[in-house]
Design a protein that fits this description.
By secondary structure, this protein is α+β, with helices and mostly antiparallel strands. It contains eight helices and 24 strands.
């Protein structure tokens, strides 16, 4: 008779095999709950080989499952290395994929903070179509007229400003702002222009606004406001504004019998943006501005300052379209001393007005050297002939009194106010009074029904 073997459960064999494999791989496997067998099976020696053959595929299956449990699926090493050198877009996509893969587990992955590159702050292109021209120490300069705020004649002391910028000779405190002052003659790249002993007698300052920065340029005399065909296409930022390739003179153009240096406002803005932290003025004694000073600041207006013979007058800058010279005037038959003729301004015919006779002076000589203020009122335009355009000035409108209480009827019919400024009697010209003057009645067309 064959020898009896112990009663061995096939499940027990599987459990022992799985335990041995898990122990070799270092994985703790909790023993499964074993069900009580209903019957015990007697296994003879003839069935031992079959049992061993059945154990082999079980071992293989357990080994494969055990590998899946112990080693999570990983991407190839080459893919990991490529991830380290990915762009900002790839990192963002990687974080999104990680969020999707962990959303089922209720875990929020840590998204990597990537700092963006520094933003380059740029100055918008300024309009160089019309230039405010002036002279300084025999050199002519031009600034975009829309950037010019006013001409300052009484500016006090120029204090030292501790910034290392070419041509910056200091700063002034004006209207609660610290404003850098640039010597116009030193803006050029010409070494001979750098002269620290430039005379400052009768020097004025042009206050200019470039974006949100105020700056002043030295001036001896205002020349004119001229139109150009020049268009700027150079953008400059606060980070590259210090580059040597950009100078403070943007362009040099021919003007009359000399050169006109156009100041590069964008470059100056970029350098000040880097070197000037703030233009605010701290004054603890005047922290709270009184109501009177607020009213004065609101009544300040900008004027074009001009002269006819010895009469100094101003006109609000909002009424001035442009300042021209070198135009021919076509005389009219029967024209009087008030209307000197017609002027063709780029295809638009406008009247040439001369008010010198109303001021008790001789008629102005009309030739190609005359300067004209092109004024408008309610869409009516005319050219006023003057001897000289001095510049842009700022005045308090409350300082003017009614001209009718001081001047005679002929003069008060042209000027609305009078003020004493800079040892001169300053007249405020009214374009409306000129348009409605009886001396223009002969030239007005009657409206037809």
């Amino acid at each position: 008779m064959g020898k009896k073997l112990k009663n061995i459960s096939p499940l027990q064999v599987v459990k022992e095999k799985a335990g041995e494999l898990a122990k070799r791989e270092g994985i703790e496997v909790s023993p499964p709950q074993e069900k009580s067998p209903k019957t015990k099976t007697k296994i003879s020696s003839s069935t031992t080989a079959e049992t061993e053959q059945a154990d082999k595929p079980v071992d293989k299956k357990i080994s494969k499952n055990d590998e899946n449990v112990s080693k999570p699926s990983a991407k190839p090493a080459t893919e990991k290395r490529s991830k380290k050198s990915t762009s900002l877009k790839d990192k963002t996509l990687e974080n999104v994929d990680a969020l999707d893969s962990n959303s089922d587990q209720g875990e929020l992955p840590k998204v990597e903070n990537v700092e963006p590159n520094g933003i380059l702050k740029e100055c918008q292109n300024q309009d160089y179509g019309e230039l405010f021209t002036y002279s300084r120490n025999g050199v002519q300069f031009g600034i975009p007229v829309q950037n010019v705020q006013e001409v300052i004649r009484d500016f006090g002391e120029i204090s030292e400003l501790p910034i290392d910028l070419k041509a910056c000779i200091g700063s002034i405190i004006y209207r609660n702002k610290l404003i850098p002052v640039f010597e116009s003659k030193q803006l050029s790249n010409n070494p001979s222009a750098v002269d620290k002993n430039i005379p400052k007698e009768r020097m004025s300052l042009i206050r200019v606004m470039i974006e949100d920065i105020e700056v002043c340029f030295t001036m001896d005399k205002h020349i004119d406001v001229v139109s150009t065909q020049y268009k700027s296409d150079q953008k400059i930022g606060a980070k590259n504004g210090h580059l040597k390739t950009f100078g403070y003179i943007k362009n040099t153009i021919g003007y009359k019998n000399s050169n006109l240096s156009v100041i590069f406002l964008e470059k100056i803005w970029a350098d000040l943006e880097l070197n000037l932290s703030s233009q605010d003025v701290i004054d603890t004694s005047e922290v709270f501005e009184d109501q009177h000073s607020k009213m004065v600041s609101k009544s300040q207006k900008e004027f074009i300052y001009a002269r006819i013979y010895d009469f100094h007058f101003v006109v609000e800058i909002s009424s001035v379209i442009e300042i021209i010279e070198g135009y021919d005037v076509t005389r009219l038959h029967g024209s009087n001393s008030f209307v000197r003729g017609l002027l063709n301004l780029r295809g638009q015919v406008i009247a040439c007005i001369d008010i010198s006779s109303s001021l008790g002076c001789e008629k102005l000589i009309i030739d190609e050297r005359n300067k004209y203020l092109v004024l408008n009122h309610h869409q009516f335009e005319f050219a006023l002939c003057v001897n000289e355009v001095i510049g842009i000035r700022s005045f308090d409108t409350n300082s003017f009194v009614s001209a009718s209480t001081i001047l005679g009827d002929d003069v008060s019919g042209l000027f609305s106010g009078v003020s004493e400024q800079d040892e001169h009697t300053l007249l405020q010209l009214s374009p409306e009074f000129i348009i409605t003057s009886p001396m223009l009645n002969a030239y007005k067309l009657e409206k037809s029904d």
